[in-house]
Design a protein that fits this description.
mainly beta, aryl sulfotransferase activity, about 280 residues
């Protein structure tokens, strides 16, 4: 993603010989009722519409669209946090709702599994005791007695919960502190949820600058990495070579703020490749 000062709308640049052919699915995380399928020439090939909003979307293999809606009216304060949503909806090609999961604590990301179930990322209130033991962040008079944590649930087509993983049970209140320049409304701010080919969970926690792979069966981290190397990460994705590709946002980086794309080897925690734009911002 990027922007151009001289082409505010439309296709900016396209080099066919250097690009992977396919389609693009842009959505507006800050609020829109539409998602568009565009070809490489910038032409709109299809549009989905939802009156509940489309904040994020996944195109499923059979042509339906799995979307995250706009925030709920009231989620105990969670509705004010970026990425908050009221529901996950599946739309057919004509934008009809064919499946729904409604929970005001849904946020950011989700994934449809090969078995037809759906992984979702949810906020959850932490206990006041655990909240008091979590280090970091900017303390203030308006801090909640119970901050939000992250949990993952697997939802069957009938809406039942068949699996649950709570991040706070596998993190250390002192060893995984909140960024010192962030507030204490939430501990981790999960912003991505993906899976490995073996079905393990790939997670990303912005406020503690941590990405990891969670053994789905045991719940333990198989790999956990980030502080001191990346800052406020997003979207870790599993590559065919076993490495993880992620966006290192760079907010509050001690060496200076800049963003980059990083490929890291989980076996060694070594950075195998990185890319920064020019200028480096």
């Amino acid at each position: 993603m990027g922007w151009s000062s001289h082409h505010p709308v439309g296709l900016i640049h396209y080099s066919p010989q250097q690009c992977y052919r396919g389609y693009n699915l842009p959505t507006n995380a800050r609020g829109s009722n539409d998602a568009f399928l565009m070809d490489m020439e910038g032409r709109i090939c299809h549009r989905w519409h939802s009156e509940e909003g489309i904040g994020y979307a996944h195109l499923l293999p059979y042509g339906n669209l799995l979307i995250r809606t706009a925030p709920p009216c009231d989620a105990g304060g969670a509705e004010k946090i970026g990425g908050s949503s009221a529901a996950i909806l599946e739309l057919d090609w004509d934008s009809n709702v064919v499946w729904e999961y409604r929970n005001p604590l849904v946020h950011h990301d989700y994934e449809r599994l090969p078995n037809g179930n759906t992984l979702v990322l949810l906020f959850e209130n932490l206990s006041s005791d655990l909240t008091s033991r979590i280090r970091g962040g900017i303390a203030g008079d308006s801090d909640p007695e119970s901050m939000f944590g992250d949990q993952i649930q697997e939802i069957a087509p009938d809406g039942s919960v068949v699996y649950e993983w709570k991040a706070w049970e596998h993190l250390d209140p002192e060893g995984d502190p909140i960024c010192p320049l962030e507030n204490r409304v939430e501990w981790t701010h999960g912003n991505s949820l993906k899976t490995t080919p073996e079905g393990d969970l790939i997670v990303s926690y912005r406020l503690i600058s941590t990405v990891g792979i969670v053994d789905k069966a045991s719940g333990d981290f198989k790999w956990k990495w980030g502080p001191g190397h990346i800052s406020h990460p997003h979207h870790p994705t599993y590559l065919d070579n076993g490495n993880i590709l992620l966006f290192d946002n760079g907010f509050h980086r001690s060496q200076g703020t800049y963003s980059r794309v990083v490929e890291v080897n989980p076996a060694t925690s070594e950075i195998a490749w990185e890319f920064r734009g020019q200028p480096s911002i």
